[in-house]
Amino acid sequence: xxxxxxxxxxxxxxxxxxxxxxxRRGVLITSTEPLAYCVSNKWAREVCHHxxxxxxxxxxCSQCKTARYCNAACQKQAWPGHKKECRCLCNLLPRRPxxxxxxxxxxxxxxxxxxxxxxxxxxxxxxxxxxxxxxPEQKKEGLSELAAMLELYMQKEIPDLKQRMTSELPLSCRxxxxxxAKVTCNCFTISDGxxxxxxxxxxxxxxxxxxxxxxxxxxxxxxTELQLRAVQDINPGEELTISYIxxxxxxxxxxxxxxxxxxxxxxxxxxxxxxQDGVMLSGRExxxxxxxxxxxxxxxLQSESNWRELLESCSDLLTNVGEEVPDENLYKxxxxxxxxxxxxxxxxxxxxxxxxxxxxxxxxxxxxDPHPVHGLQLMRVGKLQHHLGCIEDALxxxxxxxxxxxxxxxxxxxxxxxxxxKMEECRSEMDLQPSS
Length: 436
Ligand SMILES: [Zn+2]
Ligand SMILES: [Zn+2]
Ligand SMILES: [Zn+2]
Description:
CATH class of the largest domain: Mainly Alpha
Strand order of the largest sheet: 3-11-10
CATH architecture of the largest domain: Alpha Horseshoe
Bound molecules: zinc ion
């Protein structure tokens, strides 16, 4: 682990990570490969199960017919980790394990045959919290079902699983239920540069990172490698934090999500001051309540990719009710974003651009620190402007996006490289235009 951070006891939060040195905004604090990981079922056909590259044509494992790879090299490198899993997958066919079952099995295989060079971890799986004592019964039941599925999945490959777990694994890892609970509480979602969620992984040392609703660090992935970067200047001894959840929501909702999912009450500065709640809920309440209530139906249309109906509903709401509410209102912002998404999918570029432009002041307001979501939104707007021939505007948006993404993703990230190329394209197109 890089020498910029160290483990410490964070007052009121238990274990945490703190800065050992002064860390400037944008600095790569550490990068690490997962102890265990897998592509999520949703993306199993489109993403290489070894390197997480998205690819149109992937080679399929001839045995389990589940794992897919870019090429023979990826398949070969994946084989030592996939070999046992492959037989489990075959045994379960035609059923498929859930993502957390598949990841838990991978973790158990790793724990039973630990790699030699893992002494640098700051935090062991044994120390990971399962939070079983804090969970409501219903959630525990759900996890028990997953644990039963895990046992069934591994049964043929390791018939004496319980025995081996008891004799070879640390005390807190001997039950499949506690493994499942540890995995669900501590796994990270692995996303691509554009924040599309592709899979799940365990990065034990970074599980020490505590949450803050205005964090000083951000995680970005390159393939399966997790990169942690500072988004604020950090002093020695200061705690390093990330956000476990989408920060674009009001205090009450953030706290509820953190309690349900992570079993703690957030006491960060943003929660104590309820900073931004007022502006997120600005405008006439009876109007924004209508927008808020429409959200779940609209999200349904979005997940069904019903773009035509989604765009129609969003446009109706924004014209009839949205006028009563400022653009910064959280629910109006969410609906404007969905309208943007729908119009992009329908190829209605001008509409898309007008929705995109409307969201930018709110993004600027709600993401005071560099944040990938803000950078990506600017990039999206820039691409629309470019496509519609507004080259100068596009270059302006790309430049703003670059200011953010070079800090959150780093200048050598493929996404940032892609952005730099777009800026170059704009510059050369402007040189070609006759001056007026
Ligand atoms: Zn690959
Ligand atoms: Zn296979
Ligand atoms: Zn908070």
